[in-house]
Amino acid sequence: MAYMDWRPTLEVGHAKIDAEHRSLVDALNNLHLAMKQGKGKDEIEKTLLFLKDYTVAHFAGEERLMIAHRYPETQRHCAIHADLVKEVGTLIANFQSGKVVLTSAVFSFLEDWLTKHIQGEDKALGAFLKSKGIAA
Ligand SMILES: [Fe+2]
Ligand SMILES: [Fe+2]
After folding, report:
1. Which of 32, 88, 97, 125 is most exposed, with minimal Cβ within 10 Å?
2. The domain spanning residue 62 has which CATH number?
3. Which-ligand-closest: CA of 83?
4. Mean pLDDT for the chain?
């Protein structure tokens, strides 16, 4: 069973953003699976780095859309992205140095963050893009 299920309430109404969010949920599930299967540190680190890289690329895509369409909340939304990238970077550094193990608290943090951000800032962005007739 997957750790986190995709649910319709996570749809923001923009095809590319929605597809990438599904991939983010998949990446989180893969990380959880790697941990549950007792994979070694290197394997877990690889999935963790993939999740981070994918997140960075996804954020950059959203930011390009915001800038291209003069989204009024661009600055605030980008600042929230930057905070998350920083937090995940710290998590990875602590994991690499052995200071942190991936506990259920870490997964709750990632899932909560993803859910709240998608249902909050990303949905607002999706609604804005839709209002401009941009849905993909
Ligand atoms: Fe997003
Ligand atoms: Fe976002």
Report:
1. 97
2. 1.20.120.50
3. 2
4. 95
95 CA → ligand 1 middle, Å: 24
Question: What's the confidence (pLDDT) of residue 107?
Answer: 92
Q: Give backbone dihedrals phi and psi of 97, rounded to 5 degrees, phi first.
A: -85, 0
User: Does the residue 113 lie in any domain?
Assistant: yes
Count: domains in the chain: 1
Q: Which residues span the domain enclosing 116?
A: 13-131
d(CA 23, CA 42): 22
Examine residue 30 and state whether it is found in any structural domain, yes or no.
yes
* pLDDT average, residue stretch 22-34: 95
Residues, CB within 5 angstroms of ligand 2 (ion): 62, 122
CA 106 to chain centre: 14
In a domain, 106, yes or no: yes
Contact 15, 44 (CB under 8 A): no
